[in-house]
Amino acid sequence: MEITGSKILLECLLEQGVDTVFGYPGGTILNVYDELYNYSDKINHILTSHEQGAAHAADGYARSTGKVGVCFATSGPGATNLTTGIATAYMDSSPVVFITCNVAEHLLGKDSFQEVDITGITMPITKANYVVRDVNKLADIVREAFAIARSGRPGPVLIDILKNVTALKAEYEPLDKKEHYKSGRMMKLAQRVLNDFRTPEPDKNDIDILVDMINKSERPMIISGGGVVRARAYDEMEEFVNKIDAPVAITVMGGGGVNGRNPHTTGMIGMHGSQASNMGCDGCDLLIAIGCRFSDRVALDPETFAKNAKIVQIDIDRSEINKNVMTDHHIIGDAKHVLQMLNASLTQQTHKEWNKYVFSFPVETIYDDVEGKMTPKQVLSCIARMMPDDTIVSTDVGQHQMWAIQHFHFDYPGQLLTSGGFGAMGFGLGAAIGAQIGNPDKAVIHITGDGSFRMNCNELATEEHYNLPIITFIFDNSTLGMVRQWQNLIYEKHYCQTTLDRGPDFVKLAEAYGLKGKRVSTVKELEEAITEAREWGKGYVVDCLIDTDEMVRPMVAAANPITKFIIC
Amino acid sequence: MGEARLQTLAILVDNEAGVLSQISRLFSRKGYNIESLAVGATEHQEVSRITVEVITDEEHINLLVNQLSKLIPVHNVRMLTDREGLKRELVMIKVKADAGDKRNELMQIANIFRASIVDVSLGALTIAIIGDEQKITGLVKILSQFEILELVRTGVIALERGQMTIYDDTKEKGEFNYGKNVL
């Protein structure tokens, strides 16, 4: 049957089981939206306020559901507005397929209206990207794009379709997702690297070596990273941690990969890591990092990082091995699979003395109570107490992000949505919208700062329109807190351009968008606000006033040994 | 960190638009200047072979190979050492030769180097030579005593000695492909 490119695209989305798309229409993608009109019963399109919001929403949807997110945008500015969202998904290995349309073939390369070389721009921030110039190749490319986005180490893929291609007709045969690899581009890819068609099988010998290392170790330590979350290896991780009786630290991306309430958990590691995590990492004789790439926020100084330990890296991506930190042993494979194999070979270990040593250091920072002021810890404890245990937490970037990861217990993969690698302020609200759409039965909260929130608060309109009961908590300290903290500690208190002594009034802003809001400065007021928000059942903004000089503690300055705390 | 030296990589890629820029971007992002680059189709029309030379140490070349292998259009990556690689380059050198005796002298030099004279005019002579780095440097050094008007190089191409090919599933290559996870 001959159908248009637009119809082929939407049929291909249905092949993949896609029922939700985030996006924003425009001139060149009009044909696709015209066809979408006929598919409104099968594909739910969420219109955001800005393409960046759509990109983050698709990302948040993917992270929280484990499915591939899909995002539409038009050419030119529509496409470039996606780039922050694409880079965020790339750095955190989130599977999202971005579909943009470009000007028609005869206008290409002529600096036409709203023309931009988006595949050129996104080359360094996508796993793969495509320009579709031939309608006959469209279905094949879309199928490959989805396979690449979700396979191995997941990541974003961009497909740029020329406008004329969306109108031209071609033969289309529906094909079951399982059959895709048997034809076209995917077949060629599969033939070319036959051994890599599936996620690599962990090498049994490599596993045995690690088991031996664990058996010989007296002071083992584990770091659980984003790869564990992505592999949904929660149960395997729990068993592994208990079996080798080792302290386990999480990275920013690792929140939810390991049971936050397991007594072996030492909290976050790195720049704002707990003393227990950082001291443990320094004192251990075997460091097992799973799905972690030793970013410069974890291994601040690669030379002294875990200097007394043999370092073992378990990762799905070969190119991460020895990239940032030189390791002694590595296993290539999916975290879940590797952990299953390890658990099967391991016997129960005990390391009483070692655990006692690590947990002699604080796992959580104690903040002094200041009369009349709320501490971040008080705010977060109150939220945790009042909200259901399985609440999805989306954060922006800055002090509030670190506080949230330090003080919340994350209980399952996909519960924490945060821009760990790219550190994109303005990620949170879009991601929360995506998460709420993908998880209508769960509570979703958005933790942000006054700086981050100001960046993309336009998405409150989306939240209101789709009746999403997201509660936004603003850690409002009237400053760009994290930058101010650096200025305070490292730049001689030169508070240059970080003071946010300006509007808007966030409560009035919420009301302007048709939502409710409340400004709170005590825990009691906060409790009342949360109760009101839960009863109200729509979007709600809580503006939590906290002290301007409150800092994230502990802190290790960049490029310093992990134990050299400048504040505790 | 090891000693930085000239490294040669052979890369098989999809013969498609945009692939070369994807490859070269990876080098530029890490701050490596590409010393030499040669690209052309192989015996399979849909596959191109890129030969690239960069100056770096052992550790970084391994990271580069891993990251190259991860790119979807890349089929195979092979490091070729001087010992196992046959390397050739074609160079054309236009030398000023406005007097008869100069032309004679240049022709003799070309003969010794088994280079060929591909163009003669009253003012200049163009010499073409095929060879490895050593041979070409030698010729250029001698010719620089004359006046070199223009010089152009194709970039090094390299092939493995013996019956082994880039397609062979060697241990080393298996390591590199190991983490590729294409599907």
Quick tags:
A: alpha/beta; Rossmann fold; 3 domains; 22 strands; B: 183 residues; alpha+beta; Alpha-Beta Plaits; 5-stranded antiparallel β-sheet; 4-stranded antiparallel β-sheet; 39% strand; elongated
List the SSEs and their pairings.
The complex is a heterodimer of chains A (568) and B (183).
Chain A: E1 2-4, H1 5-15, E2 20-23, H2 30-36, E3 44-47, H3 51-65, E4 69-73, H4 77-91, E5 96-102, H5 118-122, E6 128-132, H6 138-150, E7 157-162, H7 163-167, E8 169-171, H8 184-192, H9 204-216, E9 220-224, H10 226-230, H11 234-244, E10 248-250, E11 265-268, H12 275-283, E12 286-290, E13 310-315, E14 329-332, H13 335-345, H14 352-358, H15 376-386, E15 392-395, H16 399-407, E16 416-417, H17 427-438, E17 444-449, H18 450-456, H19 460-465, E18 471-476, H20 481-489, H21 506-512, E19 516-520, H22 523-536, E20 540-545, E21 555-556, E22 565-567
Parallel strand pairs in A: 2-3, 2-4, 4-5, 5-7, 6-7, 9-10, 9-12, 10-11, 12-13, 13-14, 15-16, 15-17, 17-18, 18-20, 19-20
Antiparallel strand pairs in A: 1-8, 21-22
Helix pairs in contact in A: 1-2, 1-6, 3-4, 3-17, 9-13, 11-13, 15-16, 15-22
Chain B: E1 5-14, H1 19-29, E2 34-41, E3 47-56, H2 58-70, E4 74-80, E5 85-96, H3 100-112, E6 116-120, E7 124-131, H4 133-143, E8 147-153, E9 157-160, H5 171-178
Antiparallel strand pairs in B: 1-3, 1-4, 2-3, 5-7, 5-8, 5-9, 6-7
Integer average pLDDT of chain A: 95
**Overall residue-averaged pLDDT value of chain B:** 87
Structural class estimated from helices and strands of chain A: alpha/beta
Q: What's the end-to-end separation of chain A, in Å? A: 68 Å
CATH T-level topology of the largest domain in chain B: Alpha-Beta Plaits
Shape of chain A: globular
The CATH homologous superfamily of the largest domain in chain A is called Thiamin diphosphate (ThDP)-binding fold, Pyr/PP domains
Q: What global shape of chain B is seen?
A: elongated
DSSP summary, beta strand count of chain B: 9
What's the CATH first level of the largest domain in chain A?
Answer: Alpha Beta
Query: Any idea what the radius of gyration of chain A is?
Result: 24 Å
CATH fold topology of the largest domain in chain A: Rossmann fold
What string gives the helices and strands of chain B in order?
Answer: EHEEHEEHEEHEEH
Low-confidence stretches of chain B: 170-183
CATH architecture of the largest domain in chain A: 3-Layer(aba) Sandwich
Rg of chain B is 19 Å
Q: Given the structure, what is the number of helices of chain B? A: 5
- The number of distinct β-strands of chain A equals 22
In percent, how helical is the residue content of chain A? 25-40%
CATH top level of the largest domain in chain B is: Alpha Beta
